[in-house]
């Protein structure tokens, strides 16, 4: 559905925002794009929408070359894309209904058809009762619902979401993500979500790409990316909470996915069998696509014990590596995810 | 007939001879000037915004020229502008005296002022809103009229109210060189003929006038502002 081939974008100041970015997003997929601020996420989305021209390379959306389109071709190509913004960007002078109707007015749809379609969309996002409210009278979550309905008005093939939940609290975030997922299921649209919140990726993405310094550092199906235990993206997605490691020298980091055929409990059973201590410094367990994924940080007395623990854990299909407290601390500091409210 | 000022205080023939006529003149001056300011100042303000660096069609050269003209108009004190414009006023109205003649310098003085206020109002509109509408495939014309002006309308009406209130003050200055209206009456009778009652009546009417304009402006803004 979306194909980026060797997309490079050099800004006027000579800064390279995107360098040879190639990405492939399948139809009907929910694809997360993550990265630190300054990694090129915003530039990528502006190029995808044709708001900024690319320096070189090709961006195809539903077989239309967005990068080459100009004028009315670009306007037509843009109607295949619905865009959801972090700050929603509704017009304050229009009611919910009039905001949703706006893209249809621009596309020249007749008043009668507009009324019909707007009612449909209001029902789709569950805001029929608030149709006559102005944005100022709506809550953050309701505004984003109107934003999503507006993005879907012209029946786009692709929904581009730029930090759609970053301005919302966690309960509202969950509702909005649930809405996006159900819309994908019902309408079969392709969804691209740009976010810095790993929880968003964990919760609804089928695939994820990591941007680093304008390059795609990693892209793949969500479980594949997570199963790559040692990668930074996997560490960010299944992150360990911070723990005090004073006086600790040797650690064992274990990672287990459902692909091993075991759940996290198997790790403890393995340690018990070998009569090894299970002193846990930190641990995380998530269930994704029906599989349990866990990461544990265990404290070992010395290198010999650490080796024994690691061997026992590997026997049940976990990856286990021996590390020092100092190295673990350093790895934690490198994380960029800021999801304080999510713990 | 010589009457002492005391006997005629608050029974001044000027009241029924001139006061209502002068009030009517002030009202007419304001209506015509406001129309001219809105009709010329609004497009000028839109053009200023459009050609500015933040606008939809940045044109550094055009912007600089427009900006210079607008600032030129705004920097001349009204009383001097009025005198300097006398030949132009004669050309347009046919006379440099009376309320009709006052409308010309009033409009010339207020248009650049209002245009700048309009530009400021348009600049306040969040760029994200414009991007959202661009994404729908909207034309620049649509964005200008249906997004920028519509979203900024409460601020624009507020700016027009401020402009009109300022204009009421200017009409009084016009009185010193033969303009019409309440300002002229206050100067001709209240000041030059020491008729304090006329002065007080003019002041009360002018204050009421300003209050009325401000109230009307605020009411309209309240009605159209949904933020």
Oligomer class: heterodimer
Structural class of the helix and strand makeup of chain A? alpha/beta
Q: Name the average pLDDT of chain A.
A: 88
> Shape of chain A, please?
elongated
Q: Termini distance of chain A?
A: 35 Å
Bin the strand percentage of chain A. 25-35%
Radius of gyration of chain A, in Å, reads 23 Å
Mean pLDDT reading of chain B: 90
Largest sheet report of chain A: 6 strands, mixed
Q: Tell me the major beta sheet of chain B.
A: none
The CATH fourth-level homologous superfamily of chain B: MetI-like
Distance between the termini of chain B: 64 Å
Order of helices and strands of chain B: HHHHHHHHHH
In short:
Chain A is an alpha/beta fold and 343 residues long. Chain A has helices at 41-48, 71-78, 96-106, 111-124, 140-152, 170-187, 198-204, 222-227, 232-237, 265-273, 303-315, 325-333, and strands at 2-10, 16-25, 30-34, 56-61, 64-65, 81-84, 158-162, 190-194, 207-212, 215-221, 250-256, 280-288, 291-300, 319-324. Chain B has one domain (19-221): MetI-like (MetI-like fold), CATH 1.10.3720.
């Amino acid at each position: 559905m979306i194909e980026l081939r060797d997309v490079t974008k050099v800004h006027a100041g000579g800064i390279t925002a995107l360098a040879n970015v190639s990405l492939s997003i399948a139809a009907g997929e929910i694809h997360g794009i993550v990265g630190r601020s300054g990694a090129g996420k915003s530039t990528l989305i502006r190029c995808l929408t044709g708001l900024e021209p690319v320096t070189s390379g090709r961006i195809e959306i539903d077989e239309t070359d967005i990068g080459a389109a100009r004028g009315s071709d670009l306007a037509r190509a843009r109607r295949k894309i619905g865009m959801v913004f972090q700050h929603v960007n509704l017009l304050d002078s229009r009611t919910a209904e009039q905001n949703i109707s706006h893209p249809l007015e621009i596309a020249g749809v007749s008043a009668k058809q507009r009324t019909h379609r707007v009612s449909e969309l209001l029902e789709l996002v569950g805001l029929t009762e608030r149709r006559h409210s102005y944005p100022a009278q709506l809550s953050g979550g309701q505004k984003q619902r109107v934003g999503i309905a507006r993005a879907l008005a012209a029946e786009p093939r692709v929904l581009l979401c730029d930090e759609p939940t970053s301005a919302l609290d966690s309960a509202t975030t969950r509702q909005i993500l649930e809405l996006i997922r159900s819309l994908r299921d019902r309408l079969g649209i392709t969804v691209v979500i740009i976010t810095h919140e790993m929880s968003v990726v964990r919760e609804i993405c089928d695939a994820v790409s990591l941007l680093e310094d304008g390059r795609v550092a990693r892209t793949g199906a969500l479980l594949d990316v997570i199963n790559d235990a040692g990668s930074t993206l996997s560490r960010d997605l299944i992150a360990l909470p911070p723990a005090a490691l004073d006086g600790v020298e040797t650690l064992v980091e274990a990672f287990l996915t459902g692909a091993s055929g075991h759940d996290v409990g198997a790790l403890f059973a393995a340690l018990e069998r070998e009569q090894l201590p299970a002193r846990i410094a930190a641990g995380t367990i998530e269930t994704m696509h029906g599989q349990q994924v866990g990461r544990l940080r265990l404290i070992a007395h010395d290198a010999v014990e650490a080796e024994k623990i690691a061997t026992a854990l590997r026997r049940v299909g976990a990856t286990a590596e021996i590390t020092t407290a100092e190295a673990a601390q350093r790895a934690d500091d490198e994380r960029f995810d800021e999801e304080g409210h999510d713990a | 007939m010589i009457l002492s000022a005391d006997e005629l205080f608050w029974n001044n023939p000027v009241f029924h001879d001139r006061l209502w006529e002068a009030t009517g003149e002030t009202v007419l001056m304001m209506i015509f000037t406001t129309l001219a300011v809105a009709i010329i100042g609004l497009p000028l303000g839109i053009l200023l915004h459009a050609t500015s660096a933040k606008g939809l069609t940045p044109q550094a050269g055009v912007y600089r020229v427009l900006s210079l003209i607008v600032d030129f108009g705004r920097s001349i004190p009204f009383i001097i502008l009025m005198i300097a414009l006398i030949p132009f006023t004669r050309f347009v109205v046919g006379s440099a005296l009376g309320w009709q003649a006052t409308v010309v310098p009033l409009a010339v003085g207020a248009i650049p002022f209002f245009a700048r206020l309009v530009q400021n109002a348009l600049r306040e509109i969040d760029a994200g809103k414009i991007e959202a509408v661009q994404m729908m495939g909207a034309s620049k014309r649509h964005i200008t009229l249906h997004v920028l002006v519509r979203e900024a309308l409460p601020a624009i009406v507020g700016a027009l109210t401020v402009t009109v209130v300022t204009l009421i003050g200017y009409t009084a200055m016009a009185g010193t060189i033969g303009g019409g209206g309440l300002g002229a009456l206050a100067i001709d009778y209240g000041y030059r003929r020491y008729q304090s009652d006329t002065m007080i009546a003019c002041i009360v009417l002018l204050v009421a006038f300003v209050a009325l304009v401000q109230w009307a402006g605020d009411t309209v803004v309240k009605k159209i502002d949904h933020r």
